[in-house]
């Protein structure tokens, strides 16, 4: 007669580290050690791959930033007002270069600050409107579209130095601009007309950049979304505001952010088109360069540091206020509309 052996219970199992939760086989110690080793190996490989980038950033970004901060704490060589002797080294002045900005000597700085902000707001605003219009035109299917696309993108491909000289020729006293408007305007002299000349040249050159990025965003929008909107009776204006604009928002924000960063550092175009030391168009970059060319490295470094902080605050505020899609989080309205369109082929567009 056969005898049955009762099943082994948890209480009957011997206690030990290899015993896991009830109902789950215990993980072998060797396998866990293998996973830890693999994780550590992956971390070392990631650190090894990232290290060249970190090294380059340290050399070209971190080190110059630290040196600029250090240089901004020193004054200029020359007569020391305290001792009455000529100093061969730059005296340490602490934060005096920064506090001078808020004194009588800071009038030129604030004029350059205002010019930088004015050029950034006006040029980026115009470029956004014109760039979106360019993208919509380039996205349409018509004969000769390749030629239109090439002609629109040519200004962006022209080097800034060449475009500055080109527009300087156009804005000459006997140039094409005066011939078109019918009276004489000295565009490259001091005055508001110099600002207008810089804005026209800058918008002509860089609006295609925004158009190119927005065109890339337009090409990934499914056609079914527009077809569903047309079936629901949505007008082209409604389709633009409720479909096109929300779906190209990530690409548009990236383009606007890049243009803001570039415009805040504007130097070459007004320098070539109008010239140096023109208060009408002098930007912070031009002011810092002018101070450095006059061997006033301390104030030049202070202006550069202030511009760096200004750009950093603009970028943080831009990303914070206008949406996280700039850094790749493509959620929100676009994802909802795509999901909705794929499910029901209906568009939530008011007719």
Task: Tag the structure with descriptive keywords.
two-stranded antiparallel sheet; mainly alpha; flat; single chain; 2 strands
Architecture overview:
It is a single chain. The protein has about 350 residues and is mostly helical. Helix content is about 65%, strand content about 0%. The chain has 14 helices and 2 strands, in the order αββααααααααααααα. The protein has helices spanning about 30-70, 95-100, 105-140, 145-155, 160-170, 175-180, 190-220, 225-230, 235-245, 250-265, 270-275, 285-295, 295-320, 335-345, and strands at about 80, 85. Strands 1-2 form a two-stranded antiparallel ribbon. α3 (about 105-140) packs parallel to α7 (about 190-220), α3 runs antiparallel to α10 (about 250-265) and α10 (about 250-265) packs antiparallel against α13 (about 295-320). The chain starts with about 30 loop residues before the first helix and ends in a 7-residue tail after the last helix. Mean pLDDT is about 80; it is low at about 1-5, about 15-20 and about 330-350.
Please give the structural blueprint.
Elements: H1 29-71, E1 78-79, E2 86-87, H2 96-99, H3 107-139, H4 145-157, H5 160-170, H6 176-181, H7 192-218, H8 223-231, H9 236-247, H10 249-264, H11 268-273, H12 284-293, H13 297-322, H14 333-344
Antiparallel strand pairs: 1-2
Helix pairs in contact: 1-13, 3-7, 3-10, 4-7, 7-10, 10-13, 12-13
Write a short abstract of this structure.
The protein is mostly helical and 351 residues long. It is 65% helix and 1% strand.
């Amino acid at each position: 007669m056969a005898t049955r052996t009762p099943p082994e219970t948890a209480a009957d199992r011997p206690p030990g580290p290899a015993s896991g939760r009830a109902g789950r086989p215990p993980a072998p110690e060797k396998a866990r050690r293998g996973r830890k080793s693999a994780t550590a190996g992956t971390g070392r490989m990631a650190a090894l791959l990232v290290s060249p980038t970190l090294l380059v950033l340290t050399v070209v970004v971190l080190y110059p930033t630290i040196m600029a901060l250090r240089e901004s704490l020193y004054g200029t060589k020359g007569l020391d007002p305290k001792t009455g002797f000529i100093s061969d080294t730059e005296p340490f002045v602490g934060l005096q270069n920064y506090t001078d900005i808020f004194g009588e000597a800071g009038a030129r700085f604030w004029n350059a600050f205002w010019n930088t902000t004015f050029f950034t707001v006006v040029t980026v605003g115009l470029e956004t409107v014109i760039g979106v219009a360019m993208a919509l035109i380039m996205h349409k299917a018509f004969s000769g579209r390749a030629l239109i696309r090439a002609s629109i993108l040519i200004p962006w491909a022209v080097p800034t130095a060449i475009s500055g000289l080109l527009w300087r020729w156009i804005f000459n006293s006997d140039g094409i601009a005066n011939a078109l408007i019918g009276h004489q305007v000295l565009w490259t002299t001091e005055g508001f007309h110099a600002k207008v000349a810089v804005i026209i040249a800058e918008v002509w050159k860089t609006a295609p950049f925004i158009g190119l990025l927005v065109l890339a965003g337009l090409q990934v929008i499914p056609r079914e979304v527009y077809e569903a909107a047309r079936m629901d009776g949505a007008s082209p204006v409604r389709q633009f505001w409720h479909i096109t604009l929300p779906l190209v928002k990530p690409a548009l924000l990236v383009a606007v952010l890049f243009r803001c960063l570039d415009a805040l550092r504007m130097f070459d175009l007004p320098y070539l088109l109008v010239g140096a030391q023109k208060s009408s168009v002098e930007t912070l970059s031009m002011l810092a360069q002018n101070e450095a060319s006059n061997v006033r490295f301390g104030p030049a470094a202070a202006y550069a540091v202030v511009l760096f902080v200004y750009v950093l605050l603009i970028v943080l505020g831009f990303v914070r206020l206008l949406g996280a899609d700039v850094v790749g989080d493509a959620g929100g309205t676009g994802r909802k509309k795509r999901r909705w369109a794929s499910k029901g082929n209906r568009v939530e567009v008011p007719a």
